[in-house]
Amino acid sequence: MARNRSREPLNKEDKRALNKENFSKLLGVFSFVKPYKTTFAFGMLSLLFSSTTLLVFPYLAGKLMDVASGKQWIVTSIDQIALALVAVLFFQSIFSFFRVYLFAQVSERSMADIRLAVFGKMLTLPTAFFDQRRVGELISRITSDVSMLQDTFSTTLAELFRQVATLIIGVIVIFYIAPKLTLFMLLTFPLLVLSALVFGRSIRKLSKATQDKLADANTIVEESLQAIHVVKAFTNELLEKARYSKNLNETVRIALKTATYRGAFISFVIFALFGGIVAVMWYGAVLVQEGTMSVGDLLSFVLYTTFIGGSIAGLGDIYGQVQRAIGASERVLEIIDEVPEKESLSKERRKLKGSIQFDNVSFSYPTREELKVLKDIDFTIEPGQKVALVGPSGAGKSTIIQLLSKYYDASLGEILIDNNEIGSIDLNTLRGNIGMVPQEVMLFGGTIKENIAYGRIDATNEQINEAAKKANALQFIESFPDGMETVVGERGVKLSGGQRQRVAIARAILKDPAILVLDEATSSLDAESEHLVQQALDDLMKGRTTIIIAHRLATIRKADIILVVKDGSIVEKGNHESLSADTDGVYSYLSKLQFQLN
User: Fold this and answer.
1) pLDDT digits (tens, 9 = 90+) for 183-242
2) DSSP state, 422?
3) Of 24, 30, 286, 550, which sits 20 to 30 A from 455 (CA to CA)?
4) Using an 8 Å Cβ cutoff, are 422 and 355 in contact?
5) For residue 56, what are the CA distances in angstroms to 61, 86, 170, 313?
6) Which residue has the higher pLDDT, 440 or 23?
7) Distance CA 121, CA 133 (A)
8) DSSP summary character for residue 555
9) Residue in 333, 321, 195, 212 with CA at minimum distance from that of residue 267
10) How far apart are alpha carbons 547 and 377 in whole angstroms?
11) How many other C-beta atoms lie within 10 A of the C-beta of residue 262?
């Protein structure tokens, strides 16, 4: 259960207890600050000077009043004390500037390092990792969680140190100035603290309930707008409005209850706080009247207690921020500590011949180990052969390709490429020799040139143009005003399906793989686009081991071998003529069915 909880998006109520184990997680993220430890040390020094310098201010302000009323001190001129006060403020402002600037340098650079480390680690993780996480959640790790840590390192830790220093030094000074008045003041604290805890807990619970109800109401809006055609088709506009109204009314009810508690708490705090100030001022006035305390000491005392009160109030918020930061660090470290895929030993990839052998391979997905997706898959493909995988949806065709690309490891059996067990082949070499043209082409949001060059990032302009030409893509690319520099938009939305497919083929041509995988590459195209794409594919398949996944059997008649996959097993094997001749076979049945539909 704890693991599942750690994958949920972080929210303001998601806090971790401040125990030794959780605090060590925050320190684990703190290791990213080490490269900037000198800057961090100067920042802490500036913070120390800034905090201690400011604490001199109340003392000098009190002495200003004492000297003004005729009491003797080291300095007898009020002008000199006033100048000293200005000097304190000047130096404090200088130290504050360096504190903010130095901590900003450390936090910005270290958080950039964390983001890079997390993203870099994500790229090395196996496919099984992404099967169990939502993309939005992973993006939240790099954005929201790291931003929370950034606030912690740039502001929260500095504030924690400053408030603690102010609290400790301030209490020591007021004990020195007026021990009796300090003890009297401390008697009023427990009541305020306990009241704040009780009210604060109730208000937090109600605030969370309000947010939850509002989220429910927003879900209704999102669902209704996403399915607006369904809503209109069933004429349920009034029903959706009533559902939304019901949730809004409940949200308002809880929000008003929260406001009642908050109002009562504020009223109590105002009465108790100012009542406490009146009590302290009254007792201080009594001590001044008795002659056991000067007016200046009373002023210093009041100013110091203001500082101390502010520190106590700030520590409550800082405590919550540190708790949330621990939750964020837990999520970030969870990614960083994940076990990556087997690391590529070399960036230089060697050319494979392209022979493939599946030897009694069985497989279950890690998330559904009880369900066998592949059962005793056994076949051999010679270099340069064209092999087709056919069968109903969910039969296991795409899973065979995923195992071939080593996105997953086979549960049982062996996969051999060029007579070498797939696990012994360097990942960079293996995947560098496999080119894929999928049904749904994924293009990046850059230019056409950048998308084609993704197949080989060191390719020259001439090689990119040649690949586009072979893919029957150069003509439509040159028809655009910006040519190769045309921006394709997010996921390639500015290009048609056929254009995207030809860009993907150009990318595969540039990669020059030994093994080519065509996954329903022409199934969603119109007749003209399919003709152009098929021409490009025919050129691309020459001299390469090719695996074709297809539902449309007309596209695979020229395949050397056809493997019919059903329920995770290969039930038939042969060429188009031999499989069609078996009138009781699965392939023959699928062929007749498609002929009837056509």
Assistant:
1) 877 776 666 667 666 766 777 777 777 777 777 788 888 888 888 888 888 888 898 889
2) G
3) 550
4) no
5) 9, 11, 10, 21
6) 440
7) 15
8) G
9) 195
10) 15
11) 16
